[in-house]
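pasting for ref. prot 1 ->
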Amino acid sequence: MENTDSRANKICMKIYRVGVETLVAACDAELIGKTLKEGEIEFCISKEFYEDVIGDEELLKRHLSQATIGNLVGKRAVKCGIEMGLIDRENIIKICGIPHAQFALI
């Protein structure tokens, strides 16, 4: 893993490996620690789940290229998933105006 260790790069990510599956959880750095509340939804963007490595869009794309499952929150993180063809725009939800998308490759 590469860590630029600078929030200026703006994306936090954490990689989980279980068996043959690789989950990449990523969010825009400024969202760490926030809880988004909208109607019945309460979505916590925890440091424990999303932050291990801090990097830029290129680093996230490198990790996403190895992912079988993804959990992306924030404009920059979701944009990477779209650009890589992993996320369809119609599958993005917004919670308090913040985009969130997930994918699983079969």
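and prot 2 ->
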Amino acid sequence: MTSPHLSSAELKALVRTVPDFPRPGIQFRDITTLIGHHQGMAASVHHLAALAGAAGAHKIAGMEARGFIFGAAVAVQLGVGFVPVRKPRKLPIETIGIDYALEYGTDRLEMDPSAIERGQKVVIVDDLIATGGTALATAELLRMAGAVIEHALFVIDLPDLGGAARLRDAGITVSALMEFEGD
């Protein structure tokens, strides 16, 4: 087993930048190269778990799909439960849901309301924070279920897009392992 102690700069170097994807002018930050690097993935989970543990997490919530990758791994490392926040019609039970605005249209997130006990501290974990729409909707949905949401953790923050600032304005402390300027 290798040491999970890579620095933020070393982790950042493992993220591939793909120019002009999905459209011209966008610098897409591709985490598949980080996930595929065993030491990079272990270090990312280790750092996120330390932050979630310091926040007093009773459970970890992650959004479909890449939030499942990091969130579930963090939950396992902390020894707490994982709450999947799903796209519509993916759960075979009665759910609660929230609609939220996208750049062009709307989307919806759903969850099992029995996954959380009222008053539990739930920390949101996802791969990337951009405009913050999905993370804000997730926080609101978890709060509807009775969770206390005070922290959200991300592998990557794109600060120029304002998502972390929007979460902070909603009373949520935001931490990220790395930042990339621009889109």
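Residues 31 and 142 are 26 Å apart (CA to CA).
The longest helix spans residues 38-54.
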